Amino acid sequence: MADEGDVLTDLNLDNDATGNGADTQPVAGVISQYVKDLSVENPNAPACFQWQGAPAIDLQFNIGAERVNDEVHEVELKIKVTAKTDEGDLYLIELAYCGLIGLRNLPEDHAHAFLYAEAPRILFPFARRVIADATRDLGFQPLMVDPVDFNGLYMQQLQRRAEEEAAAGGMQPPVGQA
């Protein structure tokens, strides 16, 4: 079992699996999750409930990670939703939904991928529920945000960075297979 005060728990009950007791197995997981910040605005109530125009929804995501200590990071999934009609603004919701993520014995590239792709994927359904509840509590239909492919977005971001670095260095990014 893990040492007392350790944030990650070794669930491997086979004592022979670790040989000399060295902790070398890679581990990643969610320790806890929480709403860090939530702002909900309904600036034109009650007049907005009489408006007939279909709302235009603008949805934006941002993912950040910050080291808490050697084995724990805080991953922050920020979601901003605005709904507007021709008559005016219906609502604005800004949510910072966070998770404490424990990482141990992971290579740096795997840890980065977990923090920026897998952890947001795990946190998203809970943040989605907060957004749905907030829109419902504002007096509107619950906004059910479509699932997001965080791994695909992460891979696109890595590709874009590689292309930018190649362009800055005067080199062309590799195309096809060699």
Element-level helix/strand string: EEEEHH
Mean pLDDT: 87
| Low-pLDDT segments | none
Total DSSP E strands:
4
Q: Could you give the order of strands across the largest sheet? A: 1-4-3-2
Q: Give the helix proportion (percent range).
A: 25-40%
Number of helices: 2
What is the CA–CA distance across the termini? 47 Å
Largest sheet: number of strands, sense, barrel closure: 4 strands, antiparallel
Fraction of residues in β-strands: 25-35%
What structural category characterises the helix and strand content? Answer: alpha+beta
Shape label? elongated
- Please tell me how large the radius of gyration is: 22 Å
Task: Tell me what you see in this structure.
- It is a single chain.
- With 178 residues, the chain is an alpha+beta fold.
- The chain has 2 helices and 4 strands, in the order ββββαα.
- The protein has helices spanning 108-137, 150-168, and strands at residues 27-41, 56-67, 72-85, 88-104.
- The mean pLDDT is 87.
Summarize the structure.
The protein has 178 residues and is of the alpha+beta class. The protein has helices at residues 108-137, 150-168, and strands spanning 27-41, 56-67, 72-85, 88-104. It has a four-stranded antiparallel β-sheet with strand order 1-4-3-2, with helices on one face.
